[in-house]
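Cytochrome P450
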Amino acid sequence: MDLETLRVADNALWEAGPPHDVFTTLRSQCPVHWSSGITQTPGDAGFWSVTRAEDVLTVSKDWQTYSSASNFLLTDEGVPLDLVKGMFIGMDPPMHDRIKALFQRAFTPKAIARHEPAIREITDRVMLSLAGREECDLVTDLAQPVVARVIGSFMGLDPEDDKPWADAINTLLGFGDPVLNPGGIDQLVMEHIPPMYEKCMKLVAARRANPTEDMMSVLVFAEIDGDMLTDLEIFAGFVLMMAAGNDSTKATYTSTMRALMEHPDQRRLLLDDLSLVPSAVEEALRMFPAFAHFRRTATKDTVLGGCPIKKGDKVAMWYPSSNRDEDRYEDPDRFDVTRNPEHQAFGAGGRHFCLGTALARLELKILVEETVKRFPQMSIAGEPSWVISQFSSQLKHLPVRLHG
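Predicted structure tokens:
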């Protein structure tokens, strides 16, 4: 592997998910690595890859030096910058903190625990819909409808709107995947985002006329320093909540089930003792983080891992790498449901630590627990395929036999 010419974010490395062999090499030989660009988006500047957990922690906690305000995505040729910058994860304090605070009360562990009966009911309903089937796609037939209804209920969507919004979010986050976006970025910007905005504005108008207790109403009636959010800021906040709710749990759950099917000894441990499910969830979050990176931009010249970072340089924190750091984990590529590790799947601390951790953990616990109970002999029925994305790290399809 020629580290001088290596471009970590090139699509060719990501066709089968995160390139763990590349990250293993970088952690040992060049833990802070410079890529000269991104082949599929030639307009993008080069960037630094941060691959070890300790360095990811450093970048995460120092927002004054490593800013989110330019873009939190590595490529500047993906999701439109106006939309990205309208999301609170695309802001620095103090604005980031003020907008994030609007949602925090609804996402505390205590508040989320009250939703467990409803989430179990949603999961039960979707699993019962598979009755009589021998096979299904675990991504589209089970995970997607569960997570879409859960976040849809938080946002106040009608159930019939779950699939259209999920499809739209999948297209948006899979902006570089030729199957999800055959027309490329231009088609996404011109044809997909405008209808999403129009649909969102109809929801906004409905809430302004008839306020409710859902998250959409929180956005519509939020005040920051005496000012209401603009329509674009509301849209950005809505898309952020929908994207996080649709993709994060779906991604980690399907990779978890794949790992359990590929390691039947680990599944047997869960079947024999369901109290291990929370530990299995943490191990899955470590090994299969839903988002492969977040980017920061250096606000001044600095040094990281002995490398000279210049003002304006892009810096990518790669979580599939930091979560398999040999300095943190023994035998890091081994899936071990008893490990119960700390990890960086929700970020590495600091201002941008994930708002939805309690909800994600609860959904994953319920989904994994109910799947192994109801389908203890589930097996892989065909070749899994990945979304080609350096951001949204998830399976696109996972065909399974429900009863072995």
